Amino acid sequence: MKVVVTGGAGFIGSNFIRYMLAHYPQDEVINVDALTYAGNPENLADVESHPAYRFVKADIADRTAIEPLFAEGVDAVVNLAAESHVDRSIMQPDLFVRTNVLGTQTLLELSRQYGVRKFVQVSTDEVYGTLGDTGLFTEHTPLRPNSPYSASKAGADLLVRAYYETYGLPVNITRCSNNYGPYQFPEKLIPLMIHNALQDKPLPVYGDGLNVRDWLYVEDHCRALDLVLRQGRDGEVYNIGGHNERNNLQVVRTILAELNKPESLIRFVADRPGHDRRYAIDASKIRKELGWTPQYDYESGIRATIRWYRDHTEWMERVISGDYRQYMAKQYGDR
Ligand code: NAD
Ligand code: TDX
């Protein structure tokens, strides 16, 4: 099978490509990534020379740049390329619409024209909006996105659905909860807090710190994507999540404890506008249909992840440069 993985230089994409090459050495994996601030080829340095791996630097919204690849013949597309950070989407929504909506539509159109046999859209639980204190998101929960990021992901999901209904393109949509693990860009909660704690800098907790996320180890997400790619029923949506609800303060306190840092580093800062209160996933469909269950336990997984970042401070420092510094200055002042 020849698979195009978009966004493969990012957090989940690099973990997914490593998973694919380790499990299916006979398949061909082509990583299409524009290398934005979030894309770091170093994330895949260990597989760069794998004979089944190829990297193509291209923007998914630029049809001219990616059409030659489809013209070569492609069996499947796993679309992970996206602008992925909610806070950035509040500052620059247009970029999110371009990459997440137009980029996805460009890939769908080429997939249709060149007869791709499976298109997997990697979406997010954020398209469902927010939950109150109880309940879980199922695949039937209405889409009620609250940020420009989640609205752009929801827009992409609707186009994926339309390409299935209108043109019969064999698609799946996956909606996963928050991932944690190695190679996550240090603008996201867990690596940002680890980075600041290691430098004895304040840890900016939004609002009251009681917003809840449902955490899943990135490799468990990758295994779910692989199952959907190979066995997903065409046209179906699959929710993915590990039943690991934690509020942000709990996550931050675990990080401080593991790094032997004081809780006095916690700073409550202004809340994120439109901040979703709680996400929690009902993953019973993918469990029943495809036999997926998470293999990593949260308590040991999060601790191993914290130690990975502690042991890869050079990676963190190389990643935190240029564009990222400007963004951080705008977002948080100079802390
Ligand atoms: P990331 O920001 O770490 O990586 C995104 C990658 O996409 C980067 O390598 C970037 O260079 C690339 N990219 C951005 N714009 C592009 C463009 N126009 N053309 C080609 N490449 C482009 O993101 P991530 O956290 O790895 O998320 C990957 C996907 O998974 C996204 O679609 C995201 O919506 C989804 N998702 C993420 C999570 C999570 O917790 N991180 C959870 C559920 C779903
Ligand atoms: O500095 C911070 N302080 C803080 O309190 C940051 C960066 C975040 N937070 C809070 C906001 C959220 O309640 O932590 C929680 C997690 O924030 P993010 O890491 O920004 O993730 P989230 O907004 O939940 O979105 C993530 O999960 C779903 C990914 O970034 C998305 O790409 C994915 O779709």
TrEMBL record:
Record has Cytoplasm as a keyword: no
Required co-factors: NAD(+)
Keywords per UniProt: Lyase, NAD
Enzyme class: lyase
Domain NAD(P)-binding: 5-304
Pfam families: GDP_Man_Dehyd (PF16363)
Catalysed reactions, as listed in the record: dTDP-alpha-D-glucose = dTDP-4-dehydro-6-deoxy-alpha-D-glucose + H2O
UniProt entry tagged with the keyword Metal-binding: no
EC number: 4.2.1.46
SUPFAM superfamilies found in the cross-reference section: NAD(P)-binding Rossmann-fold domains
InterPro entries registered for this protein in UniProt: dTDP_Gluc_deHydtase, NAD(P)-bd_dom, NAD(P)-bd_dom_sf
Superkingdom of the organism of origin: Bacteria
Family statement: Belongs to the NAD(P)-dependent epimerase/dehydratase family. dTDP-glucose dehydratase subfamily.
PANTHER family per UniProt: DTDP-D-GLUCOSE 4,6-DEHYDRATASE-RELATED
Protein name (database record): dTDP-glucose 4,6-dehydratase
